[in-house]
Design brief:
The protein is mainly alpha-helical and 418 residues long. It has one domain. Helix content is 67%, strand content 1%. A two-stranded antiparallel sheet has the order 1-2. Helix 8 runs parallel beside helix 10 and helix 9 runs parallel beside helix 11. It is globular and about 80 Å long. The N terminus is likely disordered.
Length: 418
């Protein structure tokens, strides 16, 4: 009578099925297995945290800026979206919708005029991409424009993280600090607007990462794209072409440096040539900028006069911040050179600075034009990364709040274009 009962005891019959009986035979309660699963989950969580960190830092800083801008816009009687699509944003979105030849009559240049070639002062890369994304937003180009800037900004964040990790003395921690500094620049608000800066910076930083990795096709393709987005594409092209030629001389990379160099210059030179054909003169784009928008290269005389005037008696906050930023760029460039950042990065930064400093035009817009000079922030990011976490968080939080208010000020209180 007891045999069958013993036969069904622990270790036999139904108890052989995992978890059917208590005791050490229960696989699910094995401490070693449980510990391994917990460690695996922790490793997965850390991996995802690492992957998402650049995007999270960027979105956090820009999110603060957008909240503050929304509050200030409401106080001003407008909306967040209206502010994010103002000034040049209105032109770019109209070009995305109508092209260059069928724009509404109220789109005029800085002097209230409009010629058949006036719209060609705006590069085509951003409007074309917005138009393409518009097919995914049901034709809502405002949404498409803001989505393009959002995604491009996140792309910039990953590129900046990679850039800072690749330079001497850099690290991933420095890269995350660089992302926060970039998003918290005084006119960082334009990264969230229907403007070209976010897209340009994404292409520029990945082109530079391609150079540092000697991935010439990546560098060339991104430089090509940057040359179709902003005139500052000249800086990207210069860095990529010179670095590629150096690789050719050193006999590294085979045919790829040649391809990268050709691609890098083709974007901006191709568009300038196209505008020249439309305008009937080789310098067509430059004439449009000078005659329609008041922008032209004067070797820095106009900028120097502006700086001297503000320092000698300026009383407008916006002007003071612009001058401070302009002066800071020179100091930061010297520091970058002293730290011996890779020379292609110095070439890029130098061409950006020469373009911004050397151009006569709307001086208040120079603060926005300095956003692509993100390379100058690398030494600051490296220095911050060596500090205690509490110090880093405090500094970056303060900068994010200052940038948020200043961006709101620029778009709701300051009465002129940015």
């Amino acid at each position: 009578m007891h045999g069958p009962i013993v036969a069904n005891g622990p270790g036999h019959g139904e108890c052989k099925r995992a978890g059917a009986c208590g005791g050490p035979g229960r696989v699910g309660d094995d401490p070693l297995v449980t510990s391994t699963r917990v460690q695996a989950r922790g490793a997965d969580l850390r991996a995802w945290t690492t992957r998402l960190a650049p995007a999270a830092v960027y979105l956090a800083v820009r999110g603060v800026g957008l909240v503050v801008l929304a509050i200030m816009a409401a106080h001003d009687g407008t909306t967040l979206v209206e502010r994010l699509t103002s000034w040049d944003g209105a032109w770019l979105l109209s070009i995305a919708r109508h092209g260059y030849t069928d724009l509404p009559a109220d789109h005029v240049d800085a002097f209230g005029n409009r010629t058949p070639v006036t719209p060609y002062g705006f590069f085509p890369g951003y409007p074309l991409l917005v138009s393409a994304v518009g097919s995914l937003t049901g034709g809502d180009l405002v949404a498409a424009g803001l989505v393009v800037s959002l995604v491009a900004g996140i792309g910039s964040a990953y590129g900046l993280t990679a850039l800072a990790a690749a330079v001497p003395g850099g690290s991933r921690r420095a890269g995350l600090a660089l992302v926060a500094l970039f998003a918290a620049m005084p006119m960082g608000v334009v990264l969230s607007m229907a403007y070209t800066e976010a897209l340009f910076c994404a292409l520029a930083v990945w082109a530079l990462v391609g150079v540092l990795r000697e991935d010439w096709l990546l560098a060339g393709v991104c430089a090509f794209g940057a040359g179709l987005v902003r005139p500052t594409g000249n800086a990207v092209a210069a860095a990529v072409v010179l670095a590629a030629l150096a690789a050719v001389v050193a006999r590294r990379g085979g045919w790829r440096p040649w391809a990268g160099a050709l691609l890098a210059g083709a974007g901006i030179l191709g568009y300038l040539a196209y505008v020249g054909v439309q305008a009937g003169s080789w310098d067509g784009w430059f004439r449009i900028q000078r005659e329609g928008w008041g922008w032209y290269f004067d070797g820095g005389r106009g900028t120097a006069d502006f700086v001297a005037g503000v320092l000698g008696g300026g009383d407008r906050l916006f002007d003071v911040v612009v001058v401070a930023a302009l002066i800071a760029t020179i100091v930061l460039f010297v520091i970058c050179a002293a730290m011996r950042l890779p020379w292609p990065l110095l070439v890029y930064a130098l061409v950006v600075l020469v373009t911004v400093w050397g151009t006569e035009g709307l001086m208040n817009a120079k603060l926005r034009l300095l956003v692509p000079a993100f390379v100058l922030l690398v030494p600051v990011a490296i220095g911050l990364a060596r500090r205690r976490t509490s110090t880093v968080v405090a500094v970056l939080t303060g900068l994010a709040l200052a940038s948020a208010w200043y961006g709101g000020y620029a778009l709701t209180i300051w009465p002129y274009a940015v």
